[in-house]
Amino acid sequence: MKKNKFKIIELKPEENKNSIKRSVFIKDFVIQEIIGIHEHEKIKKQKIKFNIVIDVNQNTFPDEKDIKSIVDYEKITNKLENLAKNKKYNFLESLAEDSFKEIFEDKRINAITIKIEKPDAIKNAESVGVKVFKTRNDYEGS
After folding, report:
1. Which of 5, 78, 103, 105 is the most buried (most CB within 10 A)?
2. Does 110 reside within a domain?
C-alpha cells in the first residue's frame, strides 16, 4: 500500500508593500454664515468650524511646478465657503453631504472625514456638530 505524502502549506494574503499614506487636512477652518432651523439662527450669522481629513490616492506625487499635481486645500476651503454662502442650510448634516460632493470631485481622493461644528450654538457647550466619514465607494454608491 502506497502512502500519500501531503504537505500542509499556509496561505496568507499578499501584504501591501506600499506603506505610504498621504492625507491632506484642514484644521479649524472658520466661516461666518446663516445656518440653523431656529428663527434666531436665520437672522444672525454664526461661526461654522470645519475640520477635514482627506485620504489621497497613494500614487499621487507632487510636481513642484504644477499645483494640479496635489489636492489643493485652498480650492477646497473656497468651495466650502461658497456652499455656505450660496445655500441656506437648516442642518450641519446637509452641509456635510454637499461638502462631500464638492470634495469628491477630485478623483484622487479615496476617503474623507468631515467634522463641522457650531461653537456658539449651545450656551453651556464648547461646541456642537456632526462628524461623518465616507469612502469613495460609500459616496459613489449613494
Report:
1. 103
2. yes
